[in-house]
Amino acid sequence: MAGSKMLSFVRMGQSYPDKRAATDRRDDFAEIASSFALAKAEEQSSRCSQCGVPYCATHCPLHNHIPDWLRLTAEGRLREAYELSNATSTMPEICGRICPQDRLCEGNCVIEFSGHGAVTIGSVEKFITDTAWEQGWVEPIVPVRDRSAQSVGIIGAGPAGLTAAELLRAEGYAVHVYDRHDRAGGLLTYGIPGFKLEKHIVMRRVQRLVDAGIVFHTGFDIGRDATLESLRQRHDALLVATGVYKPRAIKAPGVGAPGVVKALDYLIASNRKGFGDTVPEWEDGSLNAAGKRVVVIGGGDTAMDCVRTAVRQGASSVKCLYRRDRANMPGSQREVANAEEEGVEFVWLSAPEAFDGDTSVSGVHATRMRLGAPDASGRRAPEPDPDSGFHLDADLAIQALGFDAEDLPKLFATPELSVTRWGTLRVDRQMMTSLEGVFAAGDIVRGASLVVWAIRDGRDVATRMHNFLKQKAGASREKVAA
């Protein structure tokens, strides 16, 4: 009977939840797509081929049991589907919203290869867990035993830190999370716009952790409010999960002109405004695109967030300048399509050379690019096309070229903290840094990456820290006995 529910891709086409019309969604920061209705979720789940080698799962960093919870959904066993989805992911409804499924699970779906269109995995994943929240199936975190005599300090309340906090609290440890921002969530809260991830979705996850007894120290800056060494003395183990926040800068004349801003500053201001905060830089217009000609430089997901935010703020025009072509951009193709629907103009194979303006930016001088020989990664390297310069008017230019690691040894006043040549923290096979009992996970180890990889790292490091803490407790008992 179970088999009769599946393999319907041969008679049923691919379908995603309906998107709101671009003219409607340009005016607010609400998510652009509705959720599946139950019947549609069951129908789309039944398209899964239940293949012997599930490439969707192997290409998911969390190795989610995707074919299994698709089958359970198709059979109407939605609570079981949720429990199976939740078994491998601490934030399935968040991943369902913001993962680039077109490059991961759906992009490697077997029926996609056969020309039938991938199963809409992300939309089903979102539906399953949203339903679980609505039905009260998301249970509180109950520690398996009391290990609160040992405490863990986690620096960074982004997806890696929150995942590790949840899993270590479930093991019974006392958990304290330290974050520089006034709200937990990291880039989930302040870096990703609401039209991709509404903020109540993040806040209810954080509240679940608070309800479990995890203590959050927000507005807490290591180096200002405490030293790393003092936290080492306070806790039995530490996790550094700060992410990478240092923006990559453009080296061009005029880049320091007012109105040439950093992507994260711009997105944080917008998200703070969405929370109802007072944001002086938004109010005075320096980080507000209303009525302006906006040029965003970059081709990743952060650039897509910026262009689509600018549209919603009422920019008079929005252009995205990227040095490669569409096929070679790092951002999600779905995000590009959404941006184009909303009126964003993409200027492919182009790069900035200089910025006009003294008191404020007034334009961007750019040059056309062409793709040359492949670089070390195998991608064709962009190179300037001679005598192809052009000019774009701009009242706001946003740099969205990605992020690097901050100088943590300096910020933490801990020069013995070892880093790689990229500035990321160096860890061993146990995910421990050069300091005994100090672990690291997420982007601060692997560099700027996806939320789903941060969750995976948080899951892995929680296991390593649990093993370390058990050994430490055992050694203490032996010392007392001796």
Gyration radius (Cα, Å) is 24 Å
The average pLDDT is 94
Low-confidence stretches: none
Strand order of the largest sheet: 3-2-1-4-15
Approximately how much beta-strand content do the residues carry?
Answer: 15-25%
- What distance separates the N and C termini? 62 Å
CATH topology of the largest domain, which one?
FAD/NAD(P)-binding domain
Globally, the shape reads globular
Q: What report would you give on this structure?
A:
The chain is of the alpha/beta class and 482 residues long. It has 3 domains: 3-135, Fumarate Reductase Iron-sulfur Protein, Chain B, domain 2 (Orthogonal Bundle), CATH 1.10.1060; 151-244 and 405-481, FAD/NAD(P)-binding domain, CATH 3.50.50; 255-401, FAD/NAD(P)-binding domain. The chain is built from 19 helices and 15 strands. It has helices spanning 22-25, 38-45, 55-58, 66-74, 78-88, 92-98, 110-113, 121-135, 159-170, 187-190, 199-211, 228-234, 263-275, 280-283, 301-312, 333-341, 408-411, 443-446, 451-481; strands at residues 151-155, 174-178, 215-217, 237-240, 246-247, 260-262, 293-297, 317-321, 345-347, 350-356, 363-374, 380-393, 396-399, 403-404, 438-440. A 5-stranded parallel β-sheet has the order 3-2-1-4-15, with helices on both faces. Strands 6-13-7-8-9 form a 5-stranded parallel β-sheet. Strands 10-11-12 form a 3-stranded antiparallel β-sheet, with no helix packed on it.
